[in-house]
Amino acid sequence: MTETATQSAPRDMKTFFIVWGGQLISMLGSGLSNFALGVWIYDQSKQATPFAITVLLGSLPRILLLPFAGSIADRYSRRLIMILADTANAVLTLAIFLLLGSNNLQLWHIYLIAGLGSIFSAFQEPAASASMAMIVPKEQLGRANGLVQMGQAITSVLTPMLAGALFVFIGFTGILMIDFVTFFFAVAALLFVRIPQPERAPEHKDSNIWQDMAFGWNYIQARSGLLGLLLYFAMVNFLLNWSAVLLIPMVLSNFSASTLGIIQTVMGVGMLAGSIVMSTWGGPKRRIPAVIGFIALAVLGFIIASLRADPYFIGAGVLVLMFFIPLASGNSQVIFQSKVARDVQGRVFSVRSAISQSMMPIAFLTAGPLADRFFEPLMLPGGALAETFIGQFLGTGVGRGVGLMFLLSGLVGLLVSALVYANPHIRNLEDELPDMLPGEE
Q: Which pTM does this prediction carry?
């Protein structure tokens, strides 16, 4: 079924629910294979470095390609782009299955496939984000974004338990085949629905891809409130990943793997609870104060988790963190979806993602070395901070250096949130920029 250009408002959420259901099934399959892949990598290497390389290759190509992919999403059928991206990822899963079945799978294959998957995700992300405003009524965007977050939370809660059980009964190859089959649900859902493609404005019809890429940046730069909000998100993403990537070593330095599993389940439950609230509530009328307030409450979780080498403190901290993340993310999505014209959302959203995620690779690369060579030695008995107020407050020993990093992340997050709210261009963004979506007819 082909899309026709339209500027009318969507009447209901039927199309959204069909697409969301297909993507949810596919995400569950991908979550299963990612868990099993992590087990395989550890069995093969017994090292942490391959995990870091895989994460880096799974994110960096996507961030670099997003501005180009956003232009493609505005030029061509967003629905077709999502179908092709899902199909390409299914082929990658099949490749792992065949390599593993023939006993030829090696780490460099995983690195290559992670990089290719990142490229396909670069095209999937802006096409999916820009499609939201075409299939969801303006008044329901908050609920829809909450449901998207809920899908991610359901995946994070269910897949570790399911994958652990399935790994015993059907092995890595069986899990990969399940993942391959689930891609058909995502593709079938997209084939079944129609996602309208917005008309390109006359001034954009003769532009080339390079001009489109520049347009996305210029569009945001000309709106200082949006740019300030994105720089804020970039800092928050850095803090989140700088500390969260060290959660596993912080827990395992003092507690068992089963305790880590419980804490990770608590994280998923927190995210699920927050996304349920967002999907049911839809968010407040004034979203900028809500976004900043929810982020400030989220980073309080870092401070709580840092206070003691105690699983209850760590669990409570990550529960708070993950509960408020969907509320902040869902409301921020609505701001961009309502303030950016639908025909340019692919270009603008891709630049938005590139800017907001630009600090994540730096966080991945610096967190481990800083923890091992600087913060951990400071907090060991006899370390430079061991006998100071900080050492007495946080405690000393293995893992307390990472606790200090969590504390710093929380404090910096609170400070940055206060400064952002004090900026009138960001605080009054909803008043200064008009809504660009058609309302109910």
A: 0.83
Shared domain for 45 and 175, answered yes or no, is yes
Q: Which residue has the tokens 């025909």?
A: 343
Q: Give the helix/strand (H/E) hosting 101.
A: helix 78-101
Say how far apart CA 100 and CA 93 lie, in whole Å: 11
Residues 399 and 316 both lie in one domain = yes
177 and 241 belong to one structural domain: no
Which backbone phi and psi does 358 adopt, to 5 degrees? -65, -25
pLDDT in tens, the chain (441 residues): 345 444 567 878 999 999 999 999 999 999 888 878 877 876 787 665 677 688 788 888 998 999 999 999 998 999 999 999 999 999 999 999 999 989 898 989 999 999 999 999 999 999 999 999 899 998 899 999 999 999 988 888 888 778 778 877 888 899 999 999 999 999 999 999 999 988 877 766 667 788 888 898 999 999 999 999 999 999 999 999 888 878 878 888 888 877 887 888 899 899 999 999 999 999 999 999 999 999 999 999 999 999 999 999 999 999 999 999 999 999 999 999 999 988 899 999 999 999 998 888 888 788 888 888 899 999 999 999 999 999 999 999 999 999 999 999 999 999 999 999 999 999 999 999 998 877 644
**Parent domain of 399:** 209-435
Cα→Cα distances 109→55, 89, 183, 254, 424, Å? 14, 14, 21, 34, 50
Query: Whose CA is closest to 220, among 351, 88, 312, 315?
Result: 351
> Which residues lie closer than 8 Å to 109 by C-beta, 6 or more apart?
95, 96, 99
Asked if 189 and 264 sit in the same domain, the reply is no
Judgement on whether residues 337 and 367 belong to the same structural domain of the protein: yes
Structure tokens at 415: 């400070």
